[in-house]
């Protein structure tokens, strides 16, 4: 049983490592690019090179329209819901696609 839990924790840690940058609006463009490159290594058919630029714009949009407090951050689910509730899928198709990949 402990072995199975250890494997599950390892898988979870790998997923967090690959996708965590998506929900961090404080990252620089260079840091976002590194995250996108790592994601591209794992999901080469699913990641569009335009993702970095979209993330920069999406995080700017998020900060300006949702102004989370300094101690709180929005989750991946929150970000995905923002895209749909505010009908901005066309503006951020790659962000929406990658968040959907993460959440599925």
SS-based class: mainly alpha
- Fraction of helical residues: 55-70%
Compute the CA-based radius of gyration: 14 Å
Order of helices and strands: HHHHH
Largest sheet: none
Write a concise synopsis of the structure shown.
With 104 residues, the chain is an all-alpha fold. It is built from 5 helices and no strands.
Question: What do you see in this structure?
Answer:
The longest helix is centred in the N-terminal third of the chain and has 18 residues, at 2-19. The chain is mainly α. Helix 2 (29-42) packs across helix 3 and helix 4 crosses helix 5. The relative contact order is 0.14. The mean pLDDT is 86. Helix content is 66%, strand content 0%. The protein is built from five helices and no strands. It comes from Caerostris extrusa (Bark spider). This is Zinc finger MYM-type protein 1.
Protein traits:
104 residues, mainly alpha, 5 helices, 0% strand, globular, Zinc finger MYM-type protein 1
Question: How are the SSEs ordered, and which strands pair?
Answer:
Layout: H1 2-19, H2 29-42, H3 51-66, H4 76-85, H5 93-103
Helix pairs in contact: 2-3, 4-5
């Amino acid at each position: 049983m402990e072995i199975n839990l250890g494997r599950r924790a390892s898988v979870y840690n790998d997923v967090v490592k690959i996708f965590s940058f998506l929900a961090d609006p404080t990252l620089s463009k260079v840091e976002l690019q590194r995250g996108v490159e790592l994601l591209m290594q794992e999901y080469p058919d699913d990641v569009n090179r335009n993702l970095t630029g979209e993330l920069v714009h999406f995080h700017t949009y998020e900060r300006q329209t949702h102004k989370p407090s300094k101690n709180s951050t929005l989750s991946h689910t929150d970000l995905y819901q923002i895209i749909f509730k505010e009908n901005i899928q066309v503006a951020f198709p790659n962000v929406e696609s990658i968040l959907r990949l993460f959440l599925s």
